[in-house]
Write a structure and sequence with these properties.
CATH topology: Rossmann fold
Distance between the termini: 33 Å
Keywords: ATP-binding, Hydrolase, Iron, Iron-sulfur, Metal-binding, Nucleotide-binding
Helix content: 25-40%
Number of strands: 12
Number of helices: 9
CATH class: Alpha Beta
Bound molecules: adenosine-5'-triphosphate
Binding site for ATP: 51-58
Largest sheet: 8 strands, mixed
Family: Belongs to the Mrp/NBP35 ATP-binding proteins family.
Number of domains: 1
Protein name: Iron-sulfur cluster carrier protein
Structural class: alpha/beta
CATH architecture: 3-Layer(aba) Sandwich
Organism: Faecalimonas umbilicata
Length: 281
């Protein structure tokens, strides 16, 4: 019988009737999940990943969070980019996270987005985090099960770039409902997108789609779209992988300056409307 094959492709739900359940990879994967604390109730956990650094993953994470917040959903951002945290500063948060015997409280941005990041725990924001991979991965797990997130419709996880320890821990330990891959138009990046895609697939996490950042720059005088980083190949890549393109974001000076002003809680990002549909469905 198909569900009795020990091949890792069956669902954990079919374990009860399967003779191979104890040694089955699908059940083992399930057992590695870390339960949240009793004060955390998150409806959807969405990972934002990129194969490579600097493609604007934090920008996309925060934009998705803003978009859902604007639609009235309660949202949180778990900044899992431990060595390069940028989310609190984008929202103008420079305070220290506080806790009690039950756990740590996320900091609350002006638009009520709940945020947890290593920068909220350091004595100085400029202190570098020089920890080995397993320690960093442990902190990310604590951000899930020791932070009192409360009731959230969406928790966005801003992952560090690449396919290392932290993405692996997040996929294994958190109940990730889907990932969004961020890319930029360069050829090399398209290849790296596939690595992120295959990692998610291997971890049985659905890929909700791809967002291309830095797609073009719009001339402020004539409105012409200039492909600064070359022609986009995102549609080809998406088609090849069988996923949707959820949006193409230009290099937008308005977005850059709102990040500089640390007022991301005011952003309305219309470039990612298709992503909202996918997140709500
Ligand atoms: N579409 C955009 N328009 C203008 N500025 C942008 C855009 N996307 C990103 N930026 C800016 O580029 C910088 C890098 O973006 P971001 O921090 O989101 O990248 P990242 O992929 O998360 O980086 P890392 O991988 O190093 O964590 C930031 O200052 C951000 O504000």
């Amino acid at each position: 019988m198909a569900e009795e094959q020990n091949n890792g492709s069956c669902s954990p739900e079919s374990c009860s009737s399967c003779a191979h359940a104890d040694s089955c990879p699908s059940k083992q994967k399930e057992s590695m999940k870390v339960a949240p604390n009793e004060y955390t109730h998150v409806k959807k956990v969405i990972g934002v990943v990129s194969g490579k650094g600097g493609v604007g993953k934090s920008m996309v994470t925060a934009s998705l969070a803003r978009m859902m917040r604007e639609q009235g959903y309660s949202v949180g951002i778990l900044d899992a980019d431990i060595t390069g945290p940028s989310i609190p500063k984008m929202y103008g948060i420079h305070e220290h996270a506080v806790g009690n015997e039950l756990g740590m409280f996320p900091c609350i941005a002006k638009d009520e987005t709940r945020i947890m990041s290593v920068n909220l725990l350091l004595d100085s924001e400029d202190t570098p985090v020089i920890w080995r991979g397993p320690i960093i991965a442990g902190v990310v797990t604590q951000f899930w099960n020791e932070v009192l997130w409360g009731d959230l419709d969406y928790l966005f996880v801003d992952m560090p770039p690449g396919t290392g320890d932290v993405p692996l821990t997040v996929f294994q330990s958190l109940p990730v409902d889907g990932v969004i891959i961020v890319t930029s138009p360069q050829d090399l990046v398209q290849m790296i997108v596939k690595k992120a895609y295959y990692m998610a697939k291997q971890m049985d996490v659905p890929v909700l789609g791809i967002v291309e950042n830095y797609s073009y720059l719009e001339c402020p005088d004539c409105g012409k779209k200039i492909p600064v980083f070359g022609e986009s190949h995102v549609e080809e890549t998406a088609e090849e992988l069988g996923v949707k393109v959820l949006g193409k974001m230009p290099l937008d000076p308005k977005l850059a300056s709102i990040v500089e002003e640390e007022k991301f809680y005011e952003v309305t990002n219309d470039y990612l409307k298709d992503a909202a549909e996918v997140l709500i469905s």
